[in-house]
Automatic annotation (TrEMBL):
It comes from Chryseobacterium daecheongense. Keywords: Cell cycle, Cell division, Membrane, Transmembrane, Transmembrane helix. GO terms for biological process: cell division. This is Cell division protein FtsQ. The chain crosses the membrane at residues 7-25. Residues 267-280, 292-315 have a biased composition (Basic and acidic residues). Residues 262-326 are annotated as: Disordered.
């Protein structure tokens, strides 16, 4: 009998607990989610404002028009927020008091890319996402035909520039010309050619030494490009529009002209003996009857092909030749 009473007590308590639980669940599901019961937290280290608390609350209202806790589908809402381009991750959950918590991590742009006439951001993971109409994040501007496979390496380069005080001071942008990357500088009109994205620290270190030991003593407008893409050497290109470079450029043009004219002079000296040999073989046949030694002893006629033709045809008729020249 005692065992029966115990079993009966257990059954009754279970029924009571089930009734209370169902009643509390109905009451809980009937609660409305007001703005005060929606908590939105942005967990990114760098503050960005592509989306704000107001935008998230509007999404919650669209997904749950009735505003009741029981009608809210948390997995669907979480998936909807994660689908936003500027959201990296989102975690949605409810407390026992009916408070809705949304922990959101936004994407932080590393650089802004202008490609084929379109602008968009790229984060550290190499993921593209569109720019915002209401917010512009300050970051490095990159132009050119950058391939998606290069996004992560390019993001590493930008992060290294941002962490180094010297690089952050000098470099304000990156451009890609064919297969070579160029760093745009804040001082002067020159750019720093780095080539590919390998050995970036070594290349930047070489440029830093070049600036500290030489470039600080020069006019920043003197050069149009400083190349550090070659191993263990720095190649500079003079700015043709800088007036002080005129004398240097003229001297360089003269040297190029001298080197170009040297082989041409050699060719002329080699071709001169050929017409002289022809005259020696042709003139004796026609001038056998002539007794004038002056015509055969003139060496000057060997260098003038036009004069030799007139002398070969009519060597004895000098008056006629004078009349034709007049």
């Amino acid at each position: 009998m005692k065992n029966k009473y115990r079993i009966l007590k257990i059954v009754i308590t279970v029924i009571i607990l089930g009734f209370l639980l169902s009643f509390s669940l109905k009451r809980f599901s009937g609660q409305k989610i007001t703005d005060n019961k929606i908590s939105v937290k942005m967990n990114e280290k760098t503050p960005v404002y592509f989306i704000d608390e107001k935008d998230i609350k509007e999404i919650v209202k669209k997904e749950n028009p009735s505003g009741k806790v029981g009608d809210l589908n948390i997995p669907v809402l979480e998936k909807k927020i994660n689908a936003l381009p500027a959201v990296d991750s989102a975690n949605v959950y409810l407390n026992l008091n009916g408070k809705l918590n949304l922990d959101i991590k936004q994407r932080v742009p590393v650089f802004r890319l202008n490609k084929n006439g379109k602008d968009f951001y790229v984060d550290a993971k190499g993921i593209e996402f569109p720019i915002s109409k209401t917010y512009s994040h300050p970051c490095m501007l990159v132009t050119g035909d950058v391939k998606p496979a290069e996004y992560e390496k390019l993001a590493e380069l930008v992060e290294k520039i941002d962490k180094d005080d010297f690089s952050k001071k000098y470099f304000i942008g990156i451009s890609k010309d064919k297969d070579d990357y160029n760093l745009l500088t804040s001082e002067g009109n020159y750019k720093v050619e780095i080539g590919d994205l390998d050995n970036i620290e070594f290349k930047v270190k070489g440029f830093k030494e070049f600036v500290e030991k030489y470039l600080v003593f020069q006019d920043p407008q003197k050069y149009s490009m400083v190349s550090v893409k070659y191993q263990n050497q720095i190649v500079t290109t003079l700015n043709p529009y800088f007036k002080e470079n005129d004398s240097i450029l003229k001297a360089g043009h003269k040297e190029l002209a001298a080197t170009a004219s040297a082989p041409a002079m050699v060719k002329k000296t080699e071709t001169k003996p050929k017409p002289a040999e022809v005259k020696k073989t042709v003139t004796p046949k026609k001038a056998t009857s002539s007794s004038k030694p002056k015509e055969n002893t003139k060496p000057k006629t060997a260098s003038k092909p036009k004069e030799t033709k007139t002398s070969d045809k009519k060597p004895a008729a000098k008056p006629k030749a004078k009349i034709k020249i007049e």
